[in-house]
Amino acid sequence: MAVEQKRRDFIGLSFGAVAAVGGVFMLAGMKKSWDPLPSVKAAGFTTVDLSPMQEGVLHQVEWRKKPIFIIKKSADMKANDSRDVIIDGARYMLSIGLCTHLGCIPSWRPSQKQFVCACHGGVFDESGVNLFGPPPRPLDIPPFRIDGTKLVLGETGPEYDKLVNQAKA
User: Which UniProt keywords apply (predicted)?
Assistant: First the structure.
C-alpha cells in the first residue's frame, strides 16, 4: 500500500509541476501579446528639427495620422505665454491641426495671422486660440518633449506639463 501511495503522490506532484510550468508560459505569452509591437511604439513618436524653420511660415508634419501645425513666431505675432513653446529663445505655436468643432483641417492665412476652418467658419489666432465661430476651445496641443532644437512628439516633457498645468489654472 505504501508503494502505491508514493506512486500516486509522485504522479500528482509531476502533474502539478507540468501545470505550473505551462501556466507560467501561458502568462508570459499573454503579457507579450498585450505589449505593443516595436513598430507601433516607434510610430508613436515623431521628431521634428526646428532649427531650419523660418519665422511666420507654417510647418506641417504628421503624428499618429494627425496633422501637426508648427509656426516659428515672428516679432509682429502676438505672444501667448500659456500656449507658446519657447525653444532657444524663439517662440513656437504648436497644435494638432484639427478644428475642435468637428475635426476639419483649418487653413493658415499668413496675411491675417489666423487659421480659418472652411467647414463652419471657425477662426483661430496665431496661437491656436479660438476667436470666432463654433469651435468650443482652442486647438489642442499634442504631447511633446524638447530635445535641444528638436521637438519629440508623442512624449511628455516638463514643458508640456507646464502648458497643461497653465491651461487647467
Answer: 2Fe-2S, Disulfide bond, Iron, Iron-sulfur, Membrane, Metal-binding, Transmembrane, Transmembrane helix
Q: Are 56 and 93 contained in the same domain?
A: yes
Q: Are residues 52 and 20 in the same domain?
A: no
Closest CA to 87 of 144, 155, 156, 154: 144
Give me the DSSP letters along 10-24: HHHHHHHHHHHHHHH
Based on the domain organization, do 58 and 129 belong to the same domain? yes
pLDDT tens column, 68-127: 999 999 889 888 888 888 888 889 999 999 999 888 999 999 999 999 998 888 999 998
**Max Cα-Cα span within the chain:** 98
Q: Residues 116, 97: contact at Cβ < 8 Å?
A: no
What is the strand order of the sheet 46-49 is part of? Answer: 46-49, 150-153, 144-147
Domain coverage including residue 14: 8-37
